[in-house]
Amino acid sequence: MITNPLAPGHVRYAEYTEQFIAEFRGNPFLETLPEVMEAEDMKAAMIQPPSEYDFERMRVRRPAERRLAAGGLLYYRDAVGIHVELAARLTNLLRWGYVARNPMHPAFQAGIAARERAIRVTGKGDDLFVSAAPLPQQYWPTATGLTLLGITGIGKTVAVEQWMKLYPQLYIHSSYKGQPFVQTQVTYLRVQCPDNGSIHG
Q1: Which residues partner with 131 through β-bridges?
Q2: For residues 34 and 139, what is the distance between their CA atoms, to the nearest angstrom?
Q3: How many domains does the chain have?
C-alpha cells in the first residue's frame, strides 16, 4: 500500500482476484476491488471510534479539563442499519457501474474518444459555456445513480464518507494477465459543492 498525502484514502498497487459474477470477469477495474463485505463486517469497518479515553487518568483532572476532553466525542461515528443499507447500495452502484466501463473491451476507448470529440467549449472567463454534441446511441450513458435527501446536519456526508473508507481511493495498474496495462483507477471522487450551487467551487 502507498500512502498518498494528498488524498484521505489509500493508494494501492492493483492485485486481481477471480470474480464469481460472470459480468465482472475480465475487467481489471472490478477484479482489483476488495472482496465484498457482509453487513456486520461493513458496519465494523465503518465505525470511527473516539480517541482512547483513560477514565482513571481523567478522574483526577479538573472539571474544565474533563469537559474539554469529552469534546472529542463529537468525532465519534457509529454505523447503524441505515448506514449499512446505504453502503450496500453504493457498493452495488460502484461495482455494476464498472461493467460497461471495462478498459479491456475495444469499445471502451472508442467511447471515451467519442465523448471527448462531442464536448464544445466556447467563450472565456465568466462567459464560459460548455455544451456537447449529440452522441451516437452506442455511446449513450449507462450509469445509474442514487439520490440521498435529508435535512442539513443529519449525517448524509458523513454516511457516504464512512462508506468511502471501505475502498482505497486509487489503484495503480501496471500489467493485467501478462500484458502491459498502465492505468490509474480512481475508485471514487468527492467533490465539495458550494451552498449556493454555483459552478465556482
Answers
A1: 120
A2: 29
A3: 1
Location of C-alpha cell 502507498: 2
Helices 81-97 and 156-164 pack at an angle, to 10 degrees, of 60
Give the span between the Cα atoms of 100 and 23, in whole angstroms. 9
Nearest CA among 99, 100, 81 for reference residue 89 = 81
Direct distance between the N- and C-terminal alpha carbons of the chain, in angstroms, rounded to an integer: 31
Q: Is 199 domain-assigned?
A: no
Angstrom distance (rounded) from CA 182 to CA 163: 27
How would you write the pLDDT of the chain (201 residues) with one tens digit per residue?
Answer: 555 555 555 899 999 999 999 999 999 999 999 999 998 888 888 887 766 666 667 777 888 887 887 777 777 777 888 888 999 999 999 999 999 889 998 888 887 788 788 888 888 888 888 888 887 777 777 778 888 888 888 888 888 888 888 899 999 999 999 999 999 999 998 887 777 766 665
- The β-bridge relationship of strands 179-186 and 170-176 is antiparallel
**Domain of 141?**
11-186
Give domain status of residue 37, yes or no.
Answer: yes
Is 192 within the bounds of a domain? no
**Dihedral pair phi/psi, residue 2, rounded to 5°:** -110, 135
